[in-house]
Amino acid sequence: MSTKSKSVFITSIFPVLCALAGAAVTAIFGWLGNYQQANISYKNACIIRIDHQEENLREKYSTFLKAWIHFSYSPDMRHRNNEILRNLAQPLASAAIDMAAYAPDKLSNLSYDIGAALNSSINSNDDVEIQEKSIREAISLTGKANSAFRNALKELDTKRGQCG
Q: Which of 30, 94, 122, 124 has the fewest Cβ atoms within 10 angstroms?
């Protein structure tokens, strides 16, 4: 290669090649930045979705517990008849069924079972034996529901950790 052709290469082609290399590097870094931003957005959306699920579950479970306390500790429970039992159990059964819509399968099934046990006691036509059996079943299921609720919260924490 002659000196003149080297000079033409250095003065005309080399700057073009440097500009192309710079544009390529800029494009690669831009793509990498967009990729990282997309991953961060995906992770944040996942966490927000799980936080929303947890918030709904906690709200519904709180409503259920309040209804359970009202049912369990009402002075009317000592002298109950079918009408009193219906008035006390209906909000609790409603809260249990409402919670089922937001709960994982195990807690949802327990919620339905609690609602069914309460419904059985309400429809007992003042049969004290059926009422007592149904209420004992509802109490037992509520204890299991608490464990299922805690497990559901742990599952949500695990899912939150798997985001991204």
A: 30
The confidence score (pLDDT) of residue 157 equals 94
Could you give the CA distance from residue 156 to residue 164 in angstroms, rounded to a whole number? 14
Domain spans, the chain: 3-161
Task: In whole angstroms, give the CA distance from residue 149 to residue 91.
Answer: 20
Contacts of 133 (CB under 8 A, 6+ apart): none
The DSSP secondary structure of 129-148, one letter per residue, reads HHHHHHHHHHHHHHHHHHHH
Do 125 and 105 touch, CB atoms closer than 8 A?
no
Give the pLDDT score at 9.
61
Q: Is the four-CA dihedral 116, 108, 96, 132 of positive or negative sign?
A: positive
- Of 132, 145, 122, 153, the closest CA to residue 64 belongs to 145
Q: Do 63 and 21 form a contact (C-beta atoms < 8 A)?
A: no
What is the average pLDDT across 33-48?
85
116-134: pLDDT as tens digits: 998 888 888 778 888 889 8
Of the candidates 95, 86, 10, 91, which has an alpha carbon nearest to the alpha carbon of residue 61? 95
